[in-house]
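User: BN860_15742g1_1. Structure?
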Amino acid sequence: MLRLPLKVCNRWVQTHRSVLQKVTLLLIVVLVVARQAGWVSTPAAVQLLVAMGPMAGRARTLYRKFKFDTVMQWPEEYTLRGSLLTPSMGPLKGQELGSIDDLHFYDGDPRLVWSVYLDHAMNAVQSYQHEAANSAEHEQPPTLPFSWYDWADHHDFNKLIAASQDGGVEITCPFLYERAFEAEKLELIEKVAGSPLFSYQRVKYYDPEWYKKIRAERPGPEKVPETQCRRVNEAAAVKFNLPIQVHELHEDVRPEVYQMQARSYLFSELRNPLSLTMLESDRAAYRFPVRPTRSNLVESRMLEAFLSRHMTRADEQADFTFDHVARMQEFLKSDAAFKAKVVIPDAHRTQEDESVIPLKPSDFEFDTRGKIKELEKLEADKKINAHQKQYLESLKVSIATHPALAPKYLSEAAHISQFAGMGYHRDKRFFNGGLVEEYQEYQARLNSLIRTWLRFTRTNGLLTWVAHGSLYGYLYNAKNFPWDNDYDVQMPIRHLHLLSEYFNQSLVLEDPREGNGKFLVDVGTSITVRTNGNDQNNIDARFVDIDSGLYVDITGLSVSSNPQRDNFKDWYEQKKKTINMEQDMKEFKNPEVGDGLAAMDINTLAQYAKDHDSEFNKEQKEWIKKVAKSEKDNFEKKNAPQKGLTPPQRYFMNREVGAYNCRNNHFITMDFASPLVKTLYHGVEALVPYRVIEPLRKEYYVPKDLGFTTYQGNVYVPELRSWFNLNILKRFANMRSWNANLREVKSPINDLKLEDLDPLFENMHNIGYTDLFSLYYTSYNITAYRLKELEIQYDTTLTKEDKEDVLEILRHDVAPKMPPPVKDPTLYMYEKRLWEDLAQSMTKGEVDRVTQEVSYGIYKELFAAATDLYNKKASLFMITDDSGEPYDFNHIGTEIPKENKLFEKDYPDDRKE
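Assistant: Predicted structure:
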């Protein structure tokens, strides 16, 4: 382990800290007196405080927290009377309701929902212990009530409920199936609700020409079939919903219409998850079964029971505060947590203690029939749980379905009108608005998505690594490319099966002390099919954000009969020399052979389909023809690595040489992948393949250097460790002095110097790209960490052992110091609404002065941080161990020169065992 001596100045500062604090306070007092006496000039910030009084301080604090602080901390408490019983929208806005029975709607605030559900779980276990001490039920976690209304964001949908329930606005089924909303009805709803119904392209409705054209393209339906949408007359069914309920989704509408349609479908039609899985950071997971009926915390009387247990007479006189963090701490020590804790026997439970994780050939093969027998025995013994039962059914369906006939499982909102194809990146069930114009919220949701996936899998010992475009983005600054709309990860097939058996259709809940993400694990039904087949199910599973529909694409890697791609030919030719295929295959049984039609090869199936034409629909016949043609091409392809081999022969050879693929025919080899290397991605511990560059080069063009790089109008700036739109970057640099009010950066933008960063950051602050400026600031430490990691990984003067020691200390001691690169999206939207409400009570000039003053301070902080990093004095890399011994990692690692060949090849070979 490398150790650095403590600097004398640092030791002196520590020793004299109290004295320094007193001197600093005295200087501040003297400065204030001097300014009041007119001895020195008063800066604009002080003038603002004097002019606006306490309001200015509140505004500055809130705005800075909203835009530039990513720590998971609520700015105010959530109370029964002041928050829950006081509607924030509609005709009753600001009026306190008499009781929870008067509620027609409420936002699923995490502080409310977590408090009630955690308390219910703990109380239910106590009831079991008293009433069923000798039963098997005593050993199981309690089954929880569930409603999507409690867990999914529906703030905008509540505006429809408020307008309908409290404002008397009639909302009919056609309103949710028109290409664009009826303008008069939309304006009425917004007038009653007291705020815009949606934000994405709202201004379009003020353009008469656009409105006339969009309404004429497809007139709204006069009557919607009851199979799609129907009116509900029962009062109980209308509460916390609309008097109409959507039962079928229809995408040929604009995003704002589909948003409301999809939320109605979610609350009315979508089945409940099988369980709730609550995370304790990346240390543990707790899984609770969910009841199949819909019942939110009011309807189930959970809230009423919670208040009866905890609300005192003093609370009745004042107000009751929901403290979900305290409730979480109590839960983690409870019997409920003990009974619900997830332990997966076959998972990789030793991840915490390893710097690298070796993979095994057995990780990439799976005995489907053996697993079916194991689960059938559990079922016969009545010891099977809901997840295992569903998994068993899925295995049976999958093994009996030919790859050419497997229907598409995962669904995207691909056909939303006027959305530029962005619906392809959203799950159609959970679409909740455009988001494209809300760049900071969009990035917040993507960030929460991947951070929770990485914590969830690490917690449960499930091996997964960053792949494809996400891995390419990691290479530069440990983040996704800013233009990417989803994430790609891979898993060995054995761990994909564990994901399905334990968590398919579970709603994973982020630790509420770290964030408020809620994500559905959704694994496809053709999990045993490992070939490309009819190209309908290339993605095996998704981790879906239920508040937006954004997702992580999950693909399983396995041995299969998929033919290797041409760019593996040289590698394959070398590997196959030691294999006698004809001799070694004598006892080989192809595990890809299924049951029924799935037992047939594609040519046999094609003939069967021809002889039994009536058994197949048109689409299935086309699929069979496509797969048959593809197999013929694979067999006859002259330059292919495995030309002339049959599917069973290809499977055997892929297994023997250690070549594994996903169903989209992306191959990786054991040589490239193992051992998996620990790193950080979006600030969370992650795994990447041992070799990164070589696999990426088989998919993309990867430059040989880490330098100024251009891609489709975007540029990577090494001095900033970030990607920018080229035109925006030119504006920041004030090239050709396009704006006389901005400072000009003297150096070319592809060769920036330290002194250029001051005007560049100041222009960022002045020019108005607030979201971009904020995201750059909040992710600064994350990208600095990646640079330090690269400096260590490519340092040829360090031994393998030194590198592992230093990188481990960085992960354990430096990484926890870094706040998330982006704010939690739920907190972001909450604070955004607070800020907008506060800003309405101020003049435009006052708002401008507050935002400019805060932004100016951030610009100065950025330049100071850049200067410290350049001078190797970054506080991020100065740590102290448990014994008080200091470590300064600023000077560890080789500084990467401008002229480098960093990405010419993978890390130095001495990193491998």
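Residues 844-870 form the longest helix (27 residues). The chain has five domains: 1-41, 78-147+274-342, 155-268, 348-699, 703-911.
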